[in-house]
Amino acid sequence: MNTAIKFILTLVLLVAAASAQDNFVASIRNYRVKNEQRLLSDFTQFLSIPNIASDTPRVYLNADHLVERMKRMGLNPKTFYLGDKGSPPPVVYGEWKTPGAAKTIIFYAHYDGQPVDPKAWTVTDPFKPVIFDRPFEKGGKLIPFPATGEKIDPEWRLYARSASDDKAGVFAILTALEALKANGIQPTVNIKFLFEGEEEAGSPHLGEILTRNKDLLNADAFIVCDGPVHQSGRKQVVFGVRGDTNVDLTVYGANRPLHSGHYGNWSPNPAMRLARLLASMKDDRGNITIKGWNDDVEPLGPTEKKAIAEAPQIDEQLKRELALGQTEGGGKTLLELINIPSLNINGMKSGDVGPLARNVIPTTADAVLDLRLVKGNDFVRQVEKLRKYIELQGFYVIDHDPTDSERLAHPLIAKLIHRKGGYNAQRTPMDLPIGFSVVDAVQRVSSEQVIRMPTLGGSLPLSIITDALNVPTITVPIANYDNNQHAENENIRIQNLWDGIETYAALMTMKK
Amino acid sequence: MNTAIKFILTLVLLVAAASAQDNFVASIRNYRVKNEQRLLSDFTQFLSIPNIASDTPRVYLNADHLVERMKRMGLNPKTFYLGDKGSPPPVVYGEWKTPGAAKTIIFYAHYDGQPVDPKAWTVTDPFKPVIFDRPFEKGGKLIPFPATGEKIDPEWRLYARSASDDKAGVFAILTALEALKANGIQPTVNIKFLFEGEEEAGSPHLGEILTRNKDLLNADAFIVCDGPVHQSGRKQVVFGVRGDTNVDLTVYGANRPLHSGHYGNWSPNPAMRLARLLASMKDDRGNITIKGWNDDVEPLGPTEKKAIAEAPQIDEQLKRELALGQTEGGGKTLLELINIPSLNINGMKSGDVGPLARNVIPTTADAVLDLRLVKGNDFVRQVEKLRKYIELQGFYVIDHDPTDSERLAHPLIAKLIHRKGGYNAQRTPMDLPIGFSVVDAVQRVSSEQVIRMPTLGGSLPLSIITDALNVPTITVPIANYDNNQHAENENIRIQNLWDGIETYAALMTMKK
How high is the pLDDT of residue A82? Predict the structure, then answer.
């Protein structure tokens, strides 16, 4: 297709979309505008409930909060536990039946959040939401919550853990249905709601919970409401995600801390050992050097390649924005790189830095690695490749802190712990009829052309879902891409939250 | 000298020493035995006063404590400040004049301590001293402080920050004079006391304070009461120390934290950049690869070489004890290695490890390096070698966090901060008469032959002292070598504290 024809087709599509927006969009938007102060206040209240995995009692408070809201909405909420109430956190389920509907859609989001290091949060405590008039990195200022009747600027940012990932998803889904009901608009599909509380812990129990409730969870599509819109600002519908798994790595020096003057450069320093080991895992262009790392990758098909080629090119924009003078991967684009397996150092620590640093040789050095997987990789096999590689570097690899006799017998020791909760990549074919219906619905509430993507760089437990349910998963993200997801100072751009309500309302009223 | 003759000479020396121990040793020991409960209690009280540099008001409480004790002992204490009372902590000075004495000896120790990470202290809070019946690493048990009249086992360990480094030195010096006075034994020399409060911060003001008080500080020897006895357990007299300086190093990724799935292996990870940089600084045998690192080292003279050759060989003992299957330096012994400049990673950190780890690309990675220097090195020049090396690896080296335009112009950026308070190595010739007098005095209270060492692996600000005062410095350590100095769980073996009192009393009554 030549460029001129492509341009004209795009215009036609946009005009069609604009006319389709019609009364529907106006109704949903109007509901939001009338209620935006209450919505912001309700969302803030939801964000104020801490939701990190290690704080199980509070994670439960989030589930209770959702059950209450869903009861009020008439969604007959249930909680699915494994065993007794207590750990692990439940999946909160609810449903809305539409008389005569031919299709059933499951909306999935998660109410738990990534761990927080409150010291690193410079804008606020992670669970005390605050508003900035713009992103604080761009000079945004802290402003008070709006007074009654005060206009809410859609460029404001609300800062809190899970503001984007993924309470925004949970909140927008439920609010979308409220907006439909308030306008007397009947959904066109049966709707099932599924809110998980262990996604950030790797969804260790989701598969079993879904399998136990398989009959209840029959559906035509599993819509995953998580992740960011495209970096261009355009909405995207994503047909896959990368798999993910985490590894804890520890290497050792002497069995007790030593004075760096009396023993330094004689007694091996574990920080240097870890540095040498990690450094060897990539070449100077950032390519992973671990043998066989990419061997089992399933190549992209023509549909996926075409989608990637047609996606907006955002590398240069991102490099400027993130102030990157250089990227990794030997010149490959971001979109190409998220289609190959990765190895990331999430964290690395030995001894102390800053004012706590002492002139010592630390006893251990730790790293946490994050391995992202693509179709064809297996998360257990990928960790085994890593283990073999470490062994090839001369390390004796064990799963416990070494005894003195192990230390004496093996000069180089690495403890490797494969964290619980990994899963494989998943990709739904891009040409299923339900996929086109989803894209059409999102297009209905978009002024720009919706992007279709074969995979998200991030991970969601979709392989667990498809293994358990045999329902195609499609991801419809709403968060701004610069949301500091997983890191300190997570935020959501208010307009993205408002757009999310319209997007999910459109999905609930998709073509029959 | 063949082995048989050497053996006989050693015997003769030991017999001579044993007879010289005579009444003198018995008197000092007797004083200690009679008072050991009070002494332990007084020392514990001293250790309970926090003494880390960042907590200046409490560092001052230590100085006040010493002034009080020295007043009671009639030592006319003074405090030397730079500027007003406040920061920095003072040098506490006192003196004891001996009628007719021909020699003057300065006793130096420091009352400040290394920083502490209370979370890492597993035996107690750093400033809540506790007793274990043996080293806790060897299965020692926490025991209560002795009841009145209960015998104190000299193998007990007292745990607290500065238990060894260096409040043991301060305490043993003052107690030695008390023991002499209580026995009516007159010192043979004039004694000056100098207790510093900034040694662990690199003695940034000591030089100026000494220079200002040069006339008052005229002396024949400057006895430094710090550091550990030899790893063989034998007492040592040490004629030099290594120099020392610290560097803070930071490398950068994107200007904000990023989701490791969406951007990992495209946006560079600063932890990997730091790992690669640090790893390149040593080869796989632990030899430093930085150009010219050893170029300006002054070779050891024949006296020093002989002393090293005659010192007990402790590498194999230490390797077993520390459970080291391998050491660095390509087969060189510990004693050889402490005579060349070192590079140690004190600490290294990027993102978080353990439960706080998140699936992110951190924004920065930090390391603190400790550079030990030998005679001939200059601490400023050594850091410049490091800076040049980092530049050669392609880094733009700056002294501030980079701006976005610096980041865009320079793909690799390292912030290098040369910490305040470095100093050079120092070595007193081993054949000065005062050196022999010191060794003889220490031998008087030793049942084994005293070891003479050209240098300590550790550092003390002796070059600052000799630059300011032109007085030969000789180090007479008393702490057990396995004291966890500078690290968590610092301790002193009670017998070493008791021995220290005898050692310093012997020095105060050295040959005229």
Answer: 83
Poorest-pLDDT segment among A172-176, A436-440, A463-467, B405-409: A463-467
Q: What percent of chain B has pLDDT over 70?
A: 95
Average pLDDT over residues A337-344: 96
Q: Which of A264, A347, A487 sits opposite B350 (nearest CB)?
A: A347
Instruction: Give the whole-angstrom CA distance, residue B312 versus residue B309.
Output: 8
Chain A and chain B share a number of CB contacts under 8 A equal to 362
pLDDT, residue A5, reads 63
Q: What is the pLDDT of residue B21?
A: 52
For B204, the token pair is: 């940034």
Sorted by sequence, the CB contacts under 8 Å of residue A301 that are 6+ apart come out as: none
ipTM greater than cut 0.90: no
pLDDT, one tens digit per residue, over B276-290 is: 999 999 998 999 999
pLDDT at B9: 57
**Six-digit token pair at A26?**
């106006």
| CB distance A228 to A164 below 8 Å | yes
Question: Residue A6 pLDDT more than 90?
Answer: no
* pLDDT the model gives residue A486: 83
Q: Name every residue whose Cβ is closer than 8 Å to that of residue B151 and which is 6 or more positions away in sequence.
A: none
| Distance from C-alpha of B375 to C-alpha of B242, rounded to nearest angstrom | 8
Compute the distance between CA of residue A314 and CA of residue A142 in angstroms, rounded to an integer: 30
Q: Find out whether A94 and A193 touch, Cβ atoms under 8 Å.
A: yes
* Residue ranges of domains in chain B: 3-239+428-508, 243-300+339-418
Please report residues of B whose CB lies closer than 8 A to that of A343. 265
CB atoms within 10 A of CB B10: 12
CA B434 to chain centre: 23
Q: Determine phi and psi for B340, rounding to 5 degrees.
A: -130, 155
All residues of chain A having their beta carbon less than 8 Å from the beta carbon of residue B409 are 325
What pTM was computed for the model?
A: 0.84
What's the CATH architecture for A3-239+437-508?
A: 3-Layer(aba) Sandwich (3.40)
Provide CB contacts within 8 A for A44, sequence distance 6+: A129, A145, A158, A160
Distance (Å, whole) CA B34 – CA B27: 11
Helices marked H in A379-489 — which ranges? Answer: 379-392, 404-409, 433-444, 462-469
CA distance A231 to chain B (A): 10
Those residues of chain B that have pLDDT short of 70 are 1-22, 84-86
Q: Is A154 on the interface with B (CB under 8 A)?
A: no
Long-range Cβ contacts of B387-390 (<8 Å, 24+ apart):
B387/B416, B388/B291, B389/B281, B389/B290, B389/B291, B390/B249, B390/B277, B390/B414, B390/B416
Is the pLDDT reported for residue A128 higher than 90?
Answer: yes
Q: Which residues 348-367 of A are in CB contact (within 8 Å) with B?
A: 348-362, 365-367
Which CATH code is given to the segment(s) A244-300+339-418? 3.30.70.360
Pick from B161, B92, B343, B339: nearest CA to B238:
B339
| Per-residue pLDDT at A3 | 58
Q: What is the DSSP letter of B438?
A: H
CATH of domain B3-239+428-508: 3.40.630.10
Sign (positive or negative) of CA dihedral A276, A278, A280, A284:
negative
Q: What is the mean pLDDT of residues A413-434?
A: 94
B148/B171 Cα distance (integer angstroms): 22
| Listed residue (A298, A423, A329) closest to A371, CA to CA | A423
Question: Are the C-beta atoms of residues A404 and B323 closer than 8 Å to each other?
Answer: yes
- What's phi and psi for A68, nearest 5 deg? -60, -50
Q: Which fold has domain B243-300+339-418?
A: Alpha-Beta Plaits (3.30.70)
